[in-house]
Amino acid sequence: MDVESGLEPNLDQFLLARIAEDKRIATDAAGAIGRGDWTPADVPEESGLAGAAELVARYDPARVLAECAAKRKLVMACRDARPDLAFLGTRPRGMADFPLSPSGPHQLAAFTLAVLAMPYAGHPDYRDEWRP
Q1: C-beta of residue 88 within 8 angstroms of C-beta of residue 129
Q2: Three-state SS letters, 53-95
Q3: Is 80 within 8 Å of 7 (Cβ atoms)?
Q4: Number of helical (H) and strand (E) elements in the chain, helices listed first
Q5: Separation between Cα atoms, residue 88 and residue 130, nearest integer Å
Q6: pLDDT by residue (tens digit) across 22-76?
Q7: Which of 19, 58, 78, 100 gives 20 to 30 Å between its CA and that of 52?
Q8: Are 56 and 42 in contact (CB under 8 A)?
Q9: How much is the pLDDT for 72?
Q10: What is the distance in angstroms between the CA of the first residue and the CA of the last residue of the chain?
């Protein structure tokens, strides 16, 4: 059991750790070129990434840091709402394409945390029972 938040399992701590990793990577990337706002011109054509230049610029360190701050606020708000994580395991097998329908703030908080964790599903610490 996660002593700090009282949640079982510790989905909130998993998310906070991933957000901290994203923040560190963005901060390191900003330091590598000396600024946080990137443009497509920051990707040299000879790099072979010219087609991805707009994507690179869209996810510049400044934007990633803003997203980290927003996600952290959501996680903390959901943690305070005492999410009902047992709700995440209530979908019958074979029904993965049908959305869960949270009822009440505790289930909505759990669902929100689970959705925030989806991009990190490939991480070794991600648990299948968190899948919304």
Answers
A1: yes
A2: HHHHHHCCHHHHHHHHHHHHHHHHHHHHCCCCHHHHHCCCCCC
A3: no
A4: 4, 0
A5: 6
A6: 999 999 988 877 777 777 776 666 666 666 777 777 788 889 999 999 999 999 9
A7: 19
A8: yes
A9: 98
A10: 21
How far, CA to CA in Å, does 48 sit from each of 52, 58, 59, 91? 9, 18, 18, 44
- Separation between Cα atoms, residue 37 and residue 33, nearest integer Å: 10
Q: Dihedral sign for Cα 110, 111, 112, 117, please.
A: positive
Tokens of 15: 């998310």
97-122 per-position pLDDT tens digit: 677 788 899 999 999 999 999 999 99
Alpha carbons 76 and 99: distance in angstroms, whole number: 24
pLDDT exceeds 50 at position 4: no
DSSP one-letter code for 43: S
At residue 26's C-alpha, the angle toward residues 22 and 27, to 5°, is 115
Q: pTM higher than 0.70, yes or no?
A: yes
How many angstroms separate the CA atoms of 88 and 81, rounded? Answer: 15
Q: Which residue has the tokens 């925030």?
A: 116
